[in-house]
Amino acid sequence: MTTNAMTTNAMTANANTRTTHPVTVTDTRTDEAGRLNFAKAAPKVFRALIGFDTAARDGLDPALVELVQIRASHLNHCAYCLHMHTNDARKAGESEDRLHMVAVWREARHFFTGKEQAALALTEAVTLVADTGVPDDVYAEAAAHFEEQELAHLLALIFAINTWNRVALSTAKRAGTDERR
Questions:
Q1: Collapsing DSSP states into helix, strand and coil, what is residue 42?
Q2: What angle separates helix 62-75 from helix 79-91, to the nearest 10 degrees?
């Protein structure tokens, strides 16, 4: 993606008259929706988010990482991230059956381990934190399945995917256009 220079007409007031002057504006919007390219507009922030995401994953089972990211993306209605993470999960060997059941994991518990169920419940609670907070029983169940450091990383992963979902939704990322490649 490239940065475009746009010329616009800026209105300036000069006493009782208005004059129009051309103004050059650097524009980082590159898609049909006219949304900015976040990575180019805020590269330090973007790199920091990548670093946070990478650190969050450290020590977590890669299959669990994808399940958490898929569930948060469902809840946030983020098609871009959902497409990306279901593809990543498939490449990592995740079964189609489990991928189809993530959205309804409570009704299909037999597809998921107790640890995965606890992570999915925590993902839902943290993602929807404004609705009910993080209930004590959900937190306690996660704490029973994860050691302290692992639980901290799980929480960080949930924070990270929720941030990525908000970046993708706010900047109108289109599903199927994975820009990591």
A1: coil
A2: 160
DSSP, res 161: H
Helix axes 62-75, 114-127, angle to 10 degrees: 40
- Enclosing H/E stretch for 12: strand 4-14
Reduced to 3 states (helix: H, G, I; strand: E, B; else coil), residue 32 is coil
Task: Note the pLDDT tens digit of each residue in 116-133.
Answer: 999 999 999 999 999 999
CA-nearest of 80, 84, 117, 79 to 98 is 117
* pLDDT, tens digit, 9 for 90 and up, residues 13-52: 333 333 333 333 344 445 556 788 888 988 999 999 999 9
Residue 173 carries which DSSP code?
P
Nearest 5°: the CA angle 138, 55, 177 is: 90
